[in-house]
Amino acid sequence: MSGLEIERKFLVHKSKDWKKAAFSSSRIQQGYFSAKHTVRVRVRDEKAYLTIKGASLDGGLSRYEFEKEISLEEARRLLELCEPGKIDKRRYLVNYEGHLFEIDEFYGDNEGLVMAEAELKDANETLNLPEFIGMEVTGDSRFYNSHLRVHPFKLWRDALPKEYR
């Protein structure tokens, strides 16, 4: 898959039961390479991908993304070459009013962080939000996975309101 990725990111309210709305979940482990742009290898259950993301020119709403499926063996070898600070999370999928929300529950040094993303076809597209969606963090680099691997949530979680920690 290649093309323009347009997505909005949100924190998820801890007090809301969002897991019951999920129709699927998968375990994701990913590592990052030192590069000018975001370059990562991801293992999602029994599939693996190499992804390169360009810089955003509109405050984090959209950016070019290249993604190619690779073998699990290739991914395992590439993960050994990645920079320190792997991302470990479970992704839940929730359909809501015509949009797919991907909700990530993080583990390890990012334990306690729960974020939702929704991809859009157009930057001006209307997005109705389920009741468990909270504060928007689109464009806030603290919430990029590539940032979380270096500055994990455990170090700055107290900077967020209690319902998001």
Any overview of this molecule?
This protein has two domains: 1-32 and 84-164, Hypothetical Protein Pfu-838710-001; 34-81, no CATH class. It is 8% helix and 44% strand. The chain has two helices and nine strands; from the N terminus they run E-E-E-E-E-H-E-E-E-E-H. The protein has helices at 72-81, 145-148, and strands at 2-12, 24-33, 38-44, 47-53, 62-70, 87-96, 99-106, 114-119, 133-136. The protein has an eight-stranded antiparallel barrel with strand order 1-5-4-3-2-6-7-8. The longest helix has 10 residues, at 72-81. The model has no long low-confidence stretch (mean pLDDT 94).
How many DSSP-defined strands?
Answer: 9
Main pleated sheet: 8 strands, antiparallel, barrel
Count of helix runs: 2
Q: Share of helix among residues? A: under 10%
CATH class of the largest domain: Mainly Beta
Rounded to an integer in angstroms, the radius of gyration calculated over CA atoms is: 15 Å
In the CATH hierarchy, what is the architecture of the largest domain at level 2? Answer: Beta Barrel
Uncertain ranges: none
Structural class by SSE content: mainly beta
Order of helices and strands: EEEEEHEEEEH
**CATH T-level fold name of the largest domain:** Hypothetical Protein Pfu-838710-001
Q: Kindly estimate the percentage of residues that lie in beta strands according to DSSP.
A: 35-45%
Cα separation of the termini? 33 Å
The order of strands across the largest sheet is: 1-5-4-3-2-6-7-8
CATH H level, superfamily name of the largest domain: Hypothetical Protein Pfu-838710-001
Total number of distinct structural domains: 2
- Mean pLDDT, rounded to whole units? 94
What spatial form do the alpha-carbon principal axes imply?
globular
